[in-house]
Amino acid sequence: MPSHVSQKNEMNAKRIIVPIPTGAGLFLAHYSARGLTGLEFPSGKYLRRMVVAKSGSLPPPVCRWHRLAVLALRCALAGKVVVDLPPLDLSAGTLFQTRVWGALRNIPPGTTMTYAQIAAAVSKPKAVRAVGGACGANPIPILIPCHRVLRTNGQLGGFTAGLKWKRILLEREGVVI
DNA sequence: AAACGGCAAAATG
DNA sequence: CATTTTGCCGTTT
Q: In degrees rounded to 5, what are phi and psi of residue A60?
């Protein structure tokens, strides 16, 4: 690519936002040309958005991905193993973040790891706190299961979308705290 | 360059 | 025990 075209510009390319109705509320999926880039929890404030596309008239690839995303999210919310995901576009993440997110994806449903274990898993055993930051920056919660990371002392730790969600998600997979 | 976190281990009472 | 301090590290401003 021409060097005067910044990569930042590239990643600000247009996104399509599509609602995902679930029993737990209306989530919003964000798509780029490369795949799913984000998942928003139900907020009650999505009405203000003008950018939400009707699930009817979507570009064919997005339509396919969205079908998968809907199934995957409902599956995950039911605490079951997600069979197949749409392609994830994590290009907005830093190297460190994408490594952490990769490690998160290896945590099976119904199990947990600690922030320290994740840090070790990405070969940065001392970057424990930074792992917390990377979890918080996870653009696709639930499908990238940052809720399965707990403190070393057994406490919940934090959750950007609110601890209530972290509890709900863990409870639905049968994790006891 | 400094401040800020979804943390952890050690020190302290 | 519960709380505070101290060390750490990637990100953000």
A: -50, -45
Can you read off the two tokens belonging to residue A116? 């320290």
The values of phi and psi at residue A19, to 5°, are: -75, 145
The one-digit pLDDT tens for each residue of chain A (177 residues) are 343 344 444 555 789 999 999 999 999 999 999 999 999 999 866 554 555 666 668 999 999 999 999 999 999 999 999 989 999 999 999 999 999 999 999 999 999 999 999 999 999 999 999 999 999 999 999 999 999 999 999 999 999 999 999 999 999 999 998
Find the Å distance, CA of residue A61 to C1' of nucleotide B12.
60
The CA–C1' separation of A139 and B4, in angstroms, is 20
Whether A146 is catalytic is yes
Nearest residue by alpha-carbon distance to C1' of B6:
A158
Please state whether strand C lies within 7 Å of residue A26 at its CB atom: no
DSSP letter for each residue of A113-136: EEHHHHHHHTT-TT-HHHHHHHHH
What's this model's pTM, rounded to 2 decimal places?
0.92
Round to a whole number and report the distance in Å from the CA of A147 to the C1' of B4: 22
Question: Which nucleotide is closest to the Cα of A161 by its C1'?
Answer: B6
